[in-house]
Amino acid sequence: MVEFTREIFWNLGPDKRTIVYLLGAVAVAIFFYGLYRRYSLWRTVSRGQGAISLEGLGRRVSLLLTDGLLQRRLLREYYPGFMHAFILWGFIVLFLGTLTVALQEDLTLPFAGVRILKGSFYLYYKLFLNIAGLLALLGIGMAFVRRYLLRPSRLSRGYEFGIVLLWIFVILVTGFLLQGLRIYTLKNGWEVWSLGGWLIAEVISGWSPQESSVLSLHKIFWWSHLFLSFGLITYIPFSKLLHLLTSPANILFRGATPQGVLLPVRNFNEPYSFGVSQVEDFSRSQIFDFDACTECGRCQDNCPAHLSEKPLSPKKAIQDLKKRWLQKGKGLRSGQEGVANGELLDEDVLWACTFCMACMESCPVYISCYDKIIDLRRSLVLMKSKFFPEIGTFFRNVETFGDTFGKGRAFREDWALGADVKKIAQGDRVEYLYWVGCQGAFHDRSSLLSASLVRLLKTVGVDFGILGKEENCCGDPVRRIGNEYLFQKIAGRNIDHLKSLQFNQIVTYCPHCFNMLKNEYPQLGGHFRVIHYTELLRDLITGGQVKVNKGIEKKVVYHDPCYLARANDLYGKPREILASIPGLQLVEPLHSKRQTFCCGAGGGHMWMREIRGKKINEVRLEELCREKPEVIATSCPYCLVMFEDGVKSLGIEGVKCLDLIEMIRDAI
Predict the structure, then answer these.
(1) In 334-465, where does DSSP find H-type helix?
(2) Are 431 and 501 in contact (CB under 8 A)?
(3) Phi, then psi, of 628 in degrees rounded to 5
(4) Which residues are paired to 440 by β-bridges?
(5) N or C: fewer beta carbons within 10 Å in the chain?
(6) How confident is the prediction for the chain on average, in pLDDT?
(7) For residue 134, what is the enclosing H or E element?
């Protein structure tokens, strides 16, 4: 009976095993030496603050499997996603196949006399490995086509990319050639299971070469394949292929970090440079981001600032910072001070960011650009007092009057005149504290919506109250502009006041207030249960307290606010609210849910001048209007203001911008 197996060192002799292992040891030693040099560089250029966290390890490992191994985020774009997945999955399978050979040759066979690779298992093993190798070849071919024929603008240019692709291609091809030469020589019919090698053997048989020539050629390709493979291993830590290690590690380190949450400056009493003015001020986790970046450009293709022709490209920002880090690190390691830091990023680049989190959402390995930008902004604001004049006025308004409009406490309750809303005082207890926010209290349009929401809640008997004149700005725009000191002062005062009151949940009108109270106040000791009004309104509708009876026979496109959908995964409930309205036709724009497109007001842009380029709100409006809606619906006061301004500036007719509050108000 024919045994399905093969000799591992066929045509070479077992004496070559020692040479192979020595070469392998050298390759592995160089590999780890390269990693050590990189690690020392990470440690050299960092003050050590912001240690890498593995809190919530289960969630992190889950993301590593789904986004690292299964390539979930990459596969959002089919062509580049499957291209990369074929290469990755192919090499993982081939690596596991090599480990299986090592397990047999170095453990089970010499110590137990057990041959793993034989019989039916060996046939399926060869089939599986050949399919993996062919998929990897297909992925390499797709990469060549994409990089050198399709040439999308987001991809970096450079010879190294081509060298790496060609290197991997030759390794795969020589592997199949080795199979084909062996199969042709041995002529075992069952080797048809080795698909790639079998096809090559069939081609060779058409030439009918002499066996001695085939054996000599086999040896040449075998050693070539070996040296190329070991060479690639040594090359990894010194090249762009380092992302094979740093990208999965970054998913593990960064993946479970909540989006939209900025880290605080811990101690303003210590003499220290607040924010980042030099590259070594970045934390180790931020510097690790630089090496994890694969330069795929997805962040750039989804950044609203870049798409509106502003000077910010998240990819370029990360790569520019990486270059400064490498220059500094190499200088320090050689005993020199390194290059002068100067301006790490152009100020217009920093002020162009709206903190919409599209960069991190689109990044396959969870690299954040906005956490670097906020630290650079903090340095400008706190250390250099470099910001637009209107921002100075904004800071004074918030610090002096407690609101972004500079109106003051005396006018905080004007929006509620005639509504008979309960003001919560110490000793009172309510189910919900309604956090109105500066927009909801002072903006002419938004204050009407606050009043409408209050009337709706009173009509259905919801137990709630407001802070009235005791409410202050939550601090969101202050923090994102870069004034961390003023933010912590405001937030600390708000937290102390909220802790003195009795309520079960805070419900907010503004998504920015929602995100701040829910996700960032806990950093300063403010742990409260916080919901957005869309969550409460949806529960009231599904519970039957709010009865939607009137239909709205209109075509509606819903815009997801960044700090609801992207920062807090809240995009289903607003759609359930719209679905409850009879006759309403809901359509989805190109960018929706977690992939939504910013309105342009975030990051303090509601109060600062327009950075050069197109207006982001107009770019978003043009996209929304491609669906030919009659109504643009949203659930954020910032978005509503930006869209209504955009409708006027673009001269759009026949389209209304409405908040979900007024849509439900008009449907009951």
Answers:
(1) 347-352, 358-362, 370-378, 389-401, 437-442, 444-459
(2) no
(3) 55, 55
(4) none
(5) N
(6) 93
(7) helix 119-145
Give pLDDT tens digits for 43-52: 887 765 556 7
Q: In 3D, which of 566, 532, 517 has the Cα closest to residue 636?
A: 532
Segment (H or E) for 505? strand 502-508
Q: 381 exposed, middle or buried (CB, 10 Å; 0-12, 13-18, 19+)?
A: buried
User: What would the pLDDT profile of 42-97 be if each residue is shown by its tens digit?
Assistant: 888 776 555 677 778 888 999 999 999 999 999 999 999 999 999 999 999 999 99
Instruction: Say how far apart CA 561 and CA 399 lie, in whole Å.
Output: 27
pLDDT in tens, 193-244: 999 999 999 999 988 888 899 999 999 999 999 999 999 999 999 999 999 9
| Secondary structure class of 422 (helix, strand, coil) | coil
Residue 556 in tokens: 């509606």
Q: Is the pLDDT of residue 326 over 70?
A: yes
Q: State the residue for tokens 């090496």.
A: 291
SS3 category, 247? helix
Q: How many CA atoms lie within 13 A of 20 on its CB side?
A: 17
Distance (Å, rounded) from C-alpha 261 to C-alpha 239?
32
Decide if 613 contacts 631 (C-beta within 8 A). no
The residues, any chain, with a CB within 8 Å of residue 321's CB and separated by 6 or more, are 279, 282, 290, 344, 345, 372
- Determine the Cα–Cα distance for residues 170 and 225; give it in Å rounded to an integer: 8
Helices in 417-561 by DSSP H: which ranges? 437-442, 444-459, 476-481, 484-499, 511-515, 533-542
**In angstroms, how far is CA 404 from the centroid of its own chain?**
30
Cα-based distances in Å from 567 to 301, 398, 511, 651: 19, 24, 10, 32
The whole-angstrom separation of Cα 306 and Cα 320 is: 16
